[in-house]
Design brief:
Elements: H1 2-9, H2 11-35, H3 59-70, E1 73-78, E2 81-87, H4 89-98, E3 105-106, H5 110-116, H6 126-142, H7 148-166, H8 176-191, H9 201-218, H10 225-231, H11 234-265, H12 267-280, H13 296-309, E4 318-319, E5 324-326, E6 329-331, E7 336-340, H14 342-345, H15 388-405, E8 406-409, E9 423-424, E10 430-431, E11 437-440
Parallel strand pairs: 2-7
Antiparallel strand pairs: 1-2, 3-4, 4-7, 5-6, 8-11, 9-10
Length: 442
């Protein structure tokens, strides 16, 4: 003890000791930087890199195959550009949640850079992203996000949706545009304070452009006054509104379309959902968010539709703001990182039957709904979808509402075995266009 007291009393010794520790850390980091390498991966060819190994129409399938060979972290060369792929629940959770600051930047591809120019919520970084996300979430709460007022907006949209489906009189029709219009109207009612008729030419054109953009994109607290002037401008407002409109339309409507297709494919699951609806919701009574607590099977089916549908397979790319070390590998500053969501939603170590549509993934032996850590269709961490709460509310209310009113089945001459579950090409995985028939339940 006397030695320690003497040591601590000598200021000069403390200075020298501090310098020694600093130099030691610098030396260790120097060795680390000299010895650490980027993750290994397939050997690239000149010019094209590893593009010969990737099916550009279904890149998620190629990446799953590569992850089985190269593991949970590997480097791919898309032409001359290096990208790091993270595959599997454990490493993606580590990167996006535990190491959120290290992987918190958004990698911007040229097509998105031209569109957003660094503005908005989805494709911005730094102070712009922090301010716009904080402002957006706060404003959405002021508009009723998570409250009864938004629930009422969704319920109000159910009635014209049900009437439009009913107007087809049980004959085959494509439900794509109808579902997209209904989901878009919820966002419109929140942001613009009004809804549009489904046959409004301008509204219809806008919905079609959103779907086309998604398809094309997939083929490759108060701020100080100075910040208010630089960040809260018309362009940021415009891009933020477009971000909300596109993100709030495409993924939710695509999930519902997957749901209808899957329930035509598996009518026994559709019947069981409808039996649960009849038990807990009276005829003529609209579903409410509170009903979800009493309907574990319906909740499990919706979650399984999201997992199986795998709407955003490659996630949105991230980027490293500094040199990052992960699992002994160096990921240099500015490297594009793909937290590969398919590898989580279809992770063999997390799901009993990952390639089957199986609502039991979210049910225990007593039929109670169970949450699953590997369920991350909205991504996770600081860049997780800002509209997750709204999407969950919409999915339950719309899905339950239309199944309360209708039974969906394939057109005459089409068996359920004929229904195609292979997705179409695009930034999001959308069902191959299909026709459906809707029989009223009452």
């Amino acid at each position: 003890m006397a030695f320690i007291a003497y040591f601590l009393s000598r200021a000069d010794v403390l200075v020298y000791f501090s310098i020694f520790i600093a130099l030691f850390i610098y030396w260790i980091n120097g060795i680390k930087k000299r010895t650490a390498k980027m993750p290994t991966g397939p050997i690239p060819l000149p010019v094209i890199g590893n593009l010969h190994l990737v099916d550009l129409e279904r890149p998620h399938e190629s990446l799953m195959q590569l992850s089985e060979k190269y593991g949970e972290i590997f480097t791919l060369h898309f032409g001359p550009k290096k990208m790091v792929i993270l595959a599997g629940y454990k490493i993606i959770k580590e990167a996006l949640v535990t190491r959120a600051e290290d992987f918190g930047e958004r990698a911007i591809s040229p097509i998105f850079d031209v569109f957003s120019n660094g503005h908005g919520i989805i494709f911005s970084n730094g102070e712009t992203w922090k301010s716009m996300r904080r402002f957006t979430i706060s404003t959405l709460r002021d508009f009723g996000m998570g409250k009864k007022s938004v629930e009422a907006r969704i319920q109000n949209e159910l009635m014209p949706l049900i009437e439009s489906i009913k107007s087809h009189n049980g004959k085959p029709f494509n439900i794509h545009l109808l579902i997209s219009s209904a989901v878009s109207n919820v966002i419109c009612s929140i942001i613009f304070g009004k809804r549009f008729e489904y046959d409004d030419p301008m509204f219809e054109s806008l919905i079609k452009m959103l779907h086309e953009n998604a398809r094309l994109a997939g083929t490759p607290t108060v701020m100080e006054s100075t910040k208010v002037e630089t960040l809260f401008n018309e362009e940021n407002l415009l891009i933020s509104v477009l971000d909300l409109f596109s993100a709030g339309t495409e993924t939710t409507s695509t999930t519902i379309r997957w749901g209808i297709l899957l329930l035509m494919k598996y009518p026994e699951i559709q019947k069981r959902v409808q039996e649960e609806i009849k038990t807990h919701i009276k005829p003529g009574q609209l579903p409410t968010v509170e009903d979800r607590k009493k309907m574990p099977y319906t909740d499990a089916v919706i979650h399984e539709i999201q997992r199986f549908g795998n709407i955003v397979p490659l996630n949105l790319s991230h980027s490293t703001p500094t040199d990052v070390y992960l699992r002994g590998y160096l990921i240099p500053k500015g490297t594009e990182v793909i937290p590969f969501l398919t590898s989580v939603l279809y992770d063999k170590t997390q799901w009993k039957t990952p390639y089957d549509f199986n609502p039991n993934h979210f049910l225990n032996e007593n039929g109670k709904f169970v949450r699953h850590d590997a369920f991350m269709p909205f991504s996770v961490g600081r860049r997780a979808c800002a509209g997750e709460a709204l999407a969950k509310m919409e999915l339950f209310l719309v899905f339950t509402g239309i199944l309360q009113a209708f039974t969906f089945y394939p057109p005459p001459g089409v068996s359920r075995e004929d229904l195609n579950l292979k997705p179409s090409v695009g930034f999001t995985l959308v069902p191959t266009p299909y026709m459906t028939c809707a029989k009223p339940n009452y």
